[in-house]
From TrEMBL:
SUPFAM superfamilies: Glycerate kinase I (SSF110738). Transmembrane segments: none annotated. GO terms for biological process: organic acid phosphorylation. It comes from the Bacteria. This is Glycerate kinase. Residues 378-389 have a biased composition (Low complexity). One of its GO terms (molecular function) is glycerate kinase activity. Belongs to the glycerate kinase type-1 family. Residues 378-405 are annotated as: Disordered. PANTHER family: GLYCERATE KINASE (PTHR21599). InterPro entries: Glyc_kinase_flavodox-like_fold (IPR018193), Glycerate_kinase (IPR004381), Glycerate_kinase_RE-like (IPR018197), Glycerate_kinase_sf (IPR036129).
Length: 405
């Protein structure tokens, strides 16, 4: 019996990754009775990553007291996974949606809440911590997070700074003597899907601060402050951190690289690693992935591209079920076929309101086509013929075929 893996991203605002898997499994069993199916909740490092990994790995979401970007008490959640692993979404504590537009003040904002979540994870025994960058209301270079973990940020008079965005220009030294001793025994990874450096036109301040409420004069102050901070980091840690990815999440990337010795990985690649995707592919016959819209960004660190690349390496066919396809968009390498759920004229409101129905119909079309291909393949007299074929837009490398039912 064939084995199908379902590894789709969520369709934002309509279907979760788990819901798409349920609809796919129902269609698969109708056309391939007795088939084996496995759902692998997926994400690319953005919102929902921690919960998806908790579901995929048999982990759990835990709650902890923390502070938001403006220092207000909140309760935030993150994922604890088996084997001492934790996944923390930076946005859960320092997220932009937690701060109303009228309240946004990037010079007053801090990542301290993220450090509080890391500390809580260490208290619960985590020794492999992944921090998903993105969606932050901050531009403090990670100073607030590191201060919460015991590092002291000192001004010209050796006074301790709070580690907010406005302190970037004031910091003169970093005292590491009181840092949490467990940090040196913990492996840190940051999920980072942008390659912005710390400084310059594409850096943290100029690229991201305007999105967080900074006007032109504020951006200039933050850039000068970040230049000062970069010099302090290089003096303290013996190397420069104005590298690709360091500018992510208002410079949080640089802070994690410098203070925590973190390793940076694209979000979807880290998710695939954590769920052991390559191992799961070993006896898979077909993988179905997908996302809400296949567009020009799909190939750049999104779930569909990451899943398809892993499938191509393993020689497993991969198809994508997507909400819609941007005109002219090309499927990422490794995608054998694309099945859009909005195959005919309809309004966006209609598509969103009927997302479940449209997805179920598309899943039915997909597995109906696969079953027909299996029957045709079973009748082919030549022993070299593939018993199942999914129509492909381009010639694809040899892949394992699904046996006929």
């Amino acid at each position: 019996m064939p084995r199908f893996l379902f590894a789709s991203d969520s369709f934002k605002g309509t279907l979760s990754s788990a819901q798409t898997a349920e609809l796919l499994a129902a269609a698969a069993r109708r056309h391939f009775p007795g088939c084996r199916t496995q759902a692998i909740p997926m994400a690319d490092g953005g919102e929902g990553t921690a919960r998806a990994l908790a579901l995929a790995q048999g982990g759990r979401m835990v709650h902890s007291a923390a502070h938001d970007a403006l220092g207000r008490p909140i309760v935030a959640s993150y994922a604890l996974l088996p084997h001492g692993r934790a996944v923390i979404e930076m946005a859960a504590a320092a997220g932009l949606p937690l701060v109303a537009p009228a309240e946004r003040d990037v010079e007053a904002a801090s990542t301290a809440g993220v450090g509080e979540l890391v500390k809580d994870a260490l208290d619960r025994g985590a020794r492999d911590v992944t921090i998903a960058l993105g969606g932050s209301a901050t531009n403090d270079g990670g100073m607030g997070c590191m201060r919460a973990l015991g590092f002291r940020l000192l001004g010209a008079g050796r006074e301790e700074l709070a580690g907010r965005g406005g302190d970037l220009a004031l910091v003169r030294a970093i005292d590491r003597s009181h840092a949490d001793a467990r940090l040196s025994r913990t492996s840190f990874t940051v999920m980072c899907d942008v390659d912005n450096p710390l400084l310059g036109p594409d850096g943290a301040a100029r690229t991201f601060a305007p999105q967080k409420g900074a006007d032109a004069s504020c951006v200039k102050r933050l850039e000068r402050g970040m230049e000062n901070y970069a010099r302090v980091l290089e003096r303290t840690f013996g190397e420069g951190f104005d590298v690709p990815g360091a500018g992510a999440a208002g410079g949080m990337g640089a802070g994690c690289l410098a203070f925590l010795g973190a390793r940076a990985e694209p979000g979807v690649e880290r998710v695939l690693s954590l769920v052991g995707f390559d191992r799961l592919l070993q006896d898979a016959d077909l993988v179905v992935t997908g996302e809400g819209r296949l567009d020009a960004q799909t190939a750049h660190g999104k779930v569909v591209a990451g899943v398809a690349a892993a499938c191509a390496r393993a020689g497993v066919p991969c198809v994508a079920v997507v909400g819609s396809v941007e005109p002219g968009a090309t499927p990422p390498a490794g995608v054998t076929a694309v099945f859009p759920t909005t195959s005919g004229p309809m309004t966006l409101d209609y598509a969103l309101a009927h997302a479940t129905e449209l997805y179920a119909q598309t899943a039915e079309r997909l597995f109906s086509a696969l079953a027909a291909g299996a029957r045709l393949g079973a009748r082919e007299p030549t022993p070299s013929a593939s018993p199942m074929a999914v129509p492909a837009p381009d010639p694809a490398p040899a892949r394992r075929a699904v046996p006929p039912r």
